Backbone:
């Protein structure tokens, strides 16, 4: 992400200028967060208010803790699919238990100073994870665009799209909902480009066109406009169900934890907890690295940020809310709005709390298709379309890891897809670093053939290495020099030993010697 220049003003919380900047930024982040919190929650199969609860905790608690000074936490589209599967498998009550355990694990990892190690995760795996999430999210939300229920996981949703298209074409209410969702996406795409029209508009409109996209975030504008049109025409589309903030806060009880330990559920619960922990941690810390490049203030302490995320998820679990991560969309909006200190993200949590407590009925007029449009747009942004071509040209192995991770997530589930991606990244790195080269001298004469091995001799390159050695003349003495190897694994050492014994055997017409061995 390109770097931007932040103003080197006084960052002290006592400075009036800093207060004004943080106050303004907090309002911008609040306006970005409301539709995303609600949309992520509904798409996860949870009450709309639970997304706001997670956003509130992300602001008031995680926002106060040390770690990253300007990034903002809340429910993220990247965990939507995984949360939906957890709710389907274990029930909404057990979701809090899963999030609580994941939060405690994050705290432990932070205490053990493992935060910085998340930077060692292959970027291709993370991009593939986000691309897979984006594909599954889009496939599921296409049903919500037509006020239909998704049949299940990724493969089932993709297989059901032709049937969805046929059902939508034959239903006026479904077509109306689809029009609402498509209109939302159109506004999301067009709003940031409004500034391009400024040169051809009259001066008052030109100023409005150039400044409006910076003041009003696209998700809020899209949802507000579409909601107003639906209310004006009283269109028969499904709307968000409102239960009230206190009604949705359900701390997990003993029965919820017991459900996770039932026969046949332990493995699934363990995989879900590990997926929550690893994915939320990796996404948060990658977001922190991106946000650090956007400002010139204090940089992130990864271990403290991991503990802050763990504390937030622990509280979210105790409240029965959604898991949280640091969200790059809100964080970037926070920086671009001029935030100077963590006060902006704390205030955004205050505004979310006031909104959820004082205006819960406002959610009841929002069409579900509009929120689905927001998430389809968000899912599309998770797919690195622009980055794919240069990655394929310059780092083809990384591109393969990205694609396989994404496809595996769509075909199986989040945990298995990410695990396969990590294994492929390790295998790719092992293959890339296991280069071994033989320098052969003396073949033209009649004396000893000198062979010097260079590089890293591992089992991955063993077939090619043995083929080259077996091709040497059988009637000549061969001296194999291993001193140029940086690494020689057990498999290669054993194979080279067997090759040497065969050359020295009764059927061999010449002697082979290994002059030196690698460590």
Residues:
């Amino acid at each position: 992400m390109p770097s931007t220049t932040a103003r080197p003003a006084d960052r002290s919380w006592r400075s009036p200028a800093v207060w004004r900047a943080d106050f303004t930024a907090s309002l911008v982040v609040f306006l970005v967060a409301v539709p995303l919190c609600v949309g992520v929650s509904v798409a996860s199969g949870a009450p709309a208010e639970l997304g706001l609860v997670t956003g509130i905790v992300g602001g008031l608690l995680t926002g106060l803790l040390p770690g990253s000074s300007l990034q903002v936490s809340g429910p993220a589209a990247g965990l939507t699919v995984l949360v939906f599967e957890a709710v389907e498998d274990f029930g909404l009550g057990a979701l809090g238990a899963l999030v609580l355990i994941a939060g405690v694990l994050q705290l432990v990892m932070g205490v053990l100073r493992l935060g910085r190690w998340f930077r060692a995760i292959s970027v291709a795996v993370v991009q593939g994870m986000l691309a897979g999430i984006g594909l599954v999210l889009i496939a599921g939300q296409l049903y919500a665009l037509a006020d239909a229920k998704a049949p299940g996981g990724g493969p089932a949703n993709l297989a059901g799209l032709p049937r969805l298209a046929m059902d939508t074409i034959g239903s006026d209410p479904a077509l109306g909902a689809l029009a609402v969702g498509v209109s939302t996406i159109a506004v999301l795409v067009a709003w940031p480009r409004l500034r391009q029209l400024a040169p051809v508009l009259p001066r008052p409109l030109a100023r409005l066109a150039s400044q409006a996209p910076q003041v009003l975030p696209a998700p809020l504008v899209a949802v507000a406009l579409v909601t107003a049109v639906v209310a004006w025409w009283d269109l028969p589309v499904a709307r968000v169900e409102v239960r009230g903030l206190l009604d949705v806060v359900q701390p997990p009880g003993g029965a919820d934890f017991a459900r996770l330990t039932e026969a046949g559920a332990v493995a699934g619960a363990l995989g879900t907890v590990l997926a929550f922990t690893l994915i939320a941690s990796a996404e948060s810390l990658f977001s922190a690295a991106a946000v650090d490049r956007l400002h010139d203030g204090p940089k992130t302490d990864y271990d403290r940020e991991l503990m802050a995320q763990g504390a937030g998820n622990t509280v979210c679990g105790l409240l029965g809310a959604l898991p949280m991560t640091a969200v790059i969309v809100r964080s970037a909006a926070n920086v671009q709005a001029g935030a100077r200190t963590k006060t902006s993200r704390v205030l955004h949590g205050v505004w979310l709390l006031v909104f959820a407590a004082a205006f819960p009925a406002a959610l009841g007029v929002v069409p579900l298709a509009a929120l689905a449009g927001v998430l389809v747009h968000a899912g599309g942004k998770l797919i690195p379309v622009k980055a794919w071509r240069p990655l394929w040209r310059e780092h083809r192995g990384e591109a393969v890891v990205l694609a396989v991770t994404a496809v595996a997530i769509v075909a199986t589930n989040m945990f298995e897809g990410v695990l396969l991606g990590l294994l492929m990244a390790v295998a790719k790195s092992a293959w890339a670093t296991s280069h071994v080269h033989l320098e052969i001298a003396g073949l033209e004469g009649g004396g000893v053939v000198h062979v010097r091995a260079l590089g890293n001799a591992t089992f991955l390159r063993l077939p090619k290495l043995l083929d080259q050695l077996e091709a040497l003349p059988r009637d000549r003495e061969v001296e194999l020099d291993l001193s140029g190897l940086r690494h020689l694994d057990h498999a290669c050492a054993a194979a080279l030993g067997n090759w040497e014994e065969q050359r020295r055997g009764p059927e061999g017409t010449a002697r082979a010697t290994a002059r030196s061995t690698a460590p």
About this structure: Confidence is low (pLDDT under 50) at residues 1-11.
